[in-house]
Each structure stands twice: as C-alpha cells, then as structure tokens.
Amino acid sequence: MREVSQPATEAIRMVEVLRALGDPVRLEIVRRLAAAGEVSCNTIGGELDVHQTTMSHHYRVLREAGVTWTTVKGRTRLVRLRRDDLDTLFPGLLDSVLNGARHGRAAAGG
Amino acid sequence: MREVSQPATEAIRMVEVLRALGDPVRLEIVRRLAAAGEVSCNTIGGELDVHQTTMSHHYRVLREAGVTWTTVKGRTRLVRLRRDDLDTLFPGLLDSVLNGARHGRAAAGG
C-alpha cells in the first residue's frame, strides 16, 4: 500500500477544513461521501462529469485538510469522510454543512 | 449613507460562506465580531496588525459572502455578523465554527 499524505487527527485545523469545504465541487464530493460511505476515487468524478485531473486536485485538498481519509489498495484509492475526527474536533460542523448543502441545493432547485 | 454590495438573505450561499471563513484572518475577524457585536472596520485591523488594504479585502469577502453586514455612516464603516441570517439559513454552522475556532486557538497555544 502506497502512502498518501494526510494529517493526524490532532493536526487537523478548522481553517483548512473550511477552506477545503468552500468550493462547490468539493462540497458535493463531501455530500456524496456522507451518503455513500467509502467509495473509489473514480466513482464521483464520473457522476459529476468533472475531469479526473481536477478531481484529483479536489481529493488532495480534502485529504490534506483532514476532511477525508484515503486508503490505497493496488490501483484503487478508496476515500471516506473523517467523520469521527471532525465530529470530535469541531462538534456540529459537518452536520450543519451537510444540512446546509441540502438547503442550498433545494433553494437552487437542483 | 453610501451603498455597499451585500447579498439579500435568500441570496446567501453556504459554499461562499465556507470559502469566506476558510482564511485565518477572516476567521479571527468573525470571532472578534461575535464577541464585540458591531465595530468600526478600523478597530480589528489595528488589533491584528494587518494592513488596512488587506483588511479591506477581507471585509469585502466576508460582506459579499453574506457573513457580515456593513453600515456606512459618514467616513465610518460599521461591521457586524449576520448572525440571524446565518443561523436561519445554516443552523448550527456559525456556532460550530466559533466553538471550533476557540478549540483551534487553544490547541495552538494562542
């Protein structure tokens, strides 16, 4: 298994988490991960019609901020939300973001 | 009173709010506004030792995202958090960010 750089729990900083979440594609990735659990990196990019290079960038930002955890298995990267870490460090943040994202989509009619 | 561009409540988008909060100086401004209520634009910049031009940029990002409300009185700009709007649109978001910001400062020893 190759290593990917991702912060230890105590190294996660809220400002980096907020920065990572402050992008429409990354927010949508987070919303889908919350619903799906662990998925292969390729899954969501295809659904969103976002180019693989762009998706790799977004996944890296999320991972380095501590929002997601990536496990490399052979040629596959599995990604999941660091829900426990985030809920422990910043109680209520992820839930309010996920609820707010639903609200935003509803308001936008999408 | 001059006009400043700031979105109506229904035009506030969570992704823009998160983007605005995802910066250490802006997060600190928000934290101080939460504690102080309405302040003159010049107050916080002096306390943080951030140049006025940079502060103006940060205030504009916060205002255009709908995080803050600016009232212009003569030469003075008064800034306050749009707490009611944000709490209504994204319940729990601002509270979790403010609590998390305190956590982050404590963890950093600052």
UniProtKB/TrEMBL annotation, chains A, B:
CDD domains: HTH_ARSR. It comes from the Bacteria. Keywords: DNA-binding, Transcription, Transcription regulation. One of its GO terms (molecular function) is DNA binding. SMART domains: HTH_ARSR. Residues 6-101 form the HTH arsR-type domain. Gene3D superfamilies: Winged helix-like DNA-binding domain superfamily/Winged helix DNA-binding domain (1.10.10.10). This is ArsR family transcriptional regulator.
